C-alpha cells in the first residue's frame, strides 16, 4: 500500500513536470516574439543611452557614462516637456475614466437600442490613433471644421476660431481627441466588470433604502476596483506615451505647446539623428510611465485594503 502510494506520487510529479514542459513549449514562440520585439530593443535603447551614437546609426561611438542623462536633467526643455506630458496625461486619464465610467453605467441599464450602442462603442476604439488624430484635425479645423459650425449655431462664438493654432487650446484639443478614443476602451472594460456584478446586491441595497449615489459609492465602485486598476494603468501608459494624435493634429505646435516627451524623442531620433539623447529620453519616459503606473496601482489597492 505504501509502495503503491509512493509510486503514484512519483507518477503524478512526473506528469506535472511533463505538463509544465509542454506548456513552456507552447508558450515558447510567443516568448521569442516578445524578446525580439520588446526585450532586445529595450536593452539596445538603454545601452545606446550611454553612448554618442553616430548619425548613421551604425556602430557605437564614444562612451559618455551618464552625460546624456545629465544633459537632460540640466535642460529646461526636458523639464518643461515632462510637465506638459504629465498635464496631458492627467487630462487624458481623468477624462477617459469619467466618460468611460458614465458610458458603462448607461449601457449596463436595460433600454431599447442598448445593443446597438454597445456595438457603436467599439468603432472609435477600433480606429488607429493616427486616424483619430486626422479626424479630429478636420473636426477642429479653423475654416471648415464641424466644431466651429456647431459653436456658431449655438452662438458661443462670433467667428470661426482655429483651436489648433492657439497655444492655450491646442493641448486641450489633442487631449480631448485622445480621450474620445480611449474612453470607449474604458467603457468596454468597465462594462465587462459591471456584467459580472450580481443584480441582487443592488436590489438588496435598494430595499434597505440606499440611494443611487450610495449604491454607486459603496457597491459599484468597490466591485469595479480590479477593472479600474487595469484601466488606470493602461491610461497612464497611453497618456504619457501618446504620439500619433499629436503628430497628426499639431506636429508638436504651435511653438512647443503640444510637444510631449514622445514627440521630443521622435525629433531627436528622426530629425536630429541624435540617438544617444533620444535613447536617454526614451528611458526617462519609460521610467516616468513606470512610476505613474505603480502609483496608480498602489493607490487603488490601498483603497481595497481599507
Structure notes:
- The termini are far apart.
- The radius of gyration is 25 Å and the shape is globular.
- Helices cover about 75% and strands about 0% of the residues.
- It is mainly α.
- The longest helix has about 45 residues, at about 1-50.
- The chain folds into 2 domains: about 1-50; about 65-305, Orthogonal Bundle (MetI-like fold).
- The chain has helices spanning about 1-50, 65-75, 75-105, 115-125, 130-140, 145-155, 165-195, 200-205, 210-240, 245-250, 260-270, 275-305.
What characteristic shape results from the CA principal axes? globular
Please estimate the helix content: over 70%
Q: With helices defined by DSSP (H or I, 4 residues minimum), what is the helix count?
A: 12
**CA-to-CA gap between the ends?**
51 Å
The parts where pLDDT drops under 50 for at least 5 residues are none
For the structure shown, list the relevant keywords:
2 domains; 306 residues; mainly alpha; 12 helices; globular; MetI-like fold; 0% strand
